[in-house]
Amino acid sequence: MADNILSDFGINILEEEIDDVIFQTNEFLTDATFTGSQGPFWWILQMCMALAALFSIIVAASMAYKMMVKNEPLDVMKLFKPLVVSIILCWWYPPADTGMTNSGSSWCVLDFLSYIPNCIGSYTHDLYEAEATQISDKFEEVQQLVYVRDSMYTDLQAQADVAHKGTSDPNLIEATMEQTGVDEVTNMEKDASKLWFTSLTAGAVVGIDKIVMLIALIVFRIGWWATIYCQQILLGMLTIFGPIQWAFSLLPKWEGAWAKWLTRYLTVHFYGAMLYFVGFYVLLLFDIVLCIQVENLTAITASEQTMAAYLQNSFFSAGYLMAASIVALKCLNLVPDLAAWMIPEGDTAFSTRNFGEGVAQQAKMTATGTMATVMR
């Protein structure tokens, strides 16, 4: 039953498989199965590491030349800085992949920097998963009740159609008039027409209610996946071009380049932790609205009498879910700001936030257009 309902909605409130794929997007940087012997950006990463190493050697040679030939004061710390940068470049990516050393180690500088954000992200992910289990059960209950409501509506719709067709049969009308009289037949026709019109109106509400539920789920997933994918794009860019930033920090005017890169890298890495942190609160909100929807659908499908009363006064059971999705989309836009707050003087990724706000605006315009089309 649930599979049929999911195929009707076309999307689930939680898509863990797709989330896992998106979070692993940058793994194909060195994936041999993607483009052959090397990943799609592996060549660019190698060139960046090589250029950074060459730049560091030139700067170190220039410093040594000035100290030895031009009789400048010997400053060991200045020569020590290119050495530190060169060590970082050698261990930038796992030596097992780069071949820089013979250790074959899978440890690298990027893993060291991302250790704390990943630990926090692991904890917030566990909180999110615990709440997601409850939401999945509640959402499945909603789907089953929606299926029951649609089945009961189909039965009542069939009864309304039979009554409407019966009042349209001249022979049946004439026979009924002879037995009960004209007034009784007139009342019967009015009741049949009223029931038929009510069933049509309720059917439109039921259909729109499912569309509202679908749009609510799509709006939420758009904001969720947009945040994840923006993080992966930014992480990929910072990973590939990071060596050049560290090499530029050897120049006097760009001494703070490495610190700015480090701030951005840690900030973006905290996106995952903050995404699940915000997602936990978002799921709490969904838990509330789904409980309300379950109560409404349970009351509607309690009996044929309650279903008939619902047809007389139809309403959208997914209204709160739509409101919760819009609120969730706004909350997800806070992820870049929250991640920046975790790092002293962290830069807020305005591009990610603006992208999320633009998607939210476009989703609301699409939803409004869809609803207007359906109403017409």
TrEMBL record:
<feature type="transmembrane region" description="Helical">
    <location>
        <begin position="195"/>
        <end position="220"/>
    </location>
</feature>
<feature type="transmembrane region" description="Helical">
    <location>
        <begin position="232"/>
        <end position="251"/>
    </location>
</feature>
<feature type="transmembrane region" description="Helical">
    <location>
        <begin position="41"/>
        <end position="64"/>
    </location>
</feature>
<keyword id="KW-0812">Transmembrane</keyword>
<keyword id="KW-0472">Membrane</keyword>
<protein>
    <recommendedName>
        <fullName>Plasmid transfer protein</fullName>
    </recommendedName>
</protein>
<keyword id="KW-1133">Transmembrane helix</keyword>
<feature type="transmembrane region" description="Helical">
    <location>
        <begin position="315"/>
        <end position="335"/>
    </location>
</feature>
<feature type="transmembrane region" description="Helical">
    <location>
        <begin position="271"/>
        <end position="294"/>
    </location>
</feature>
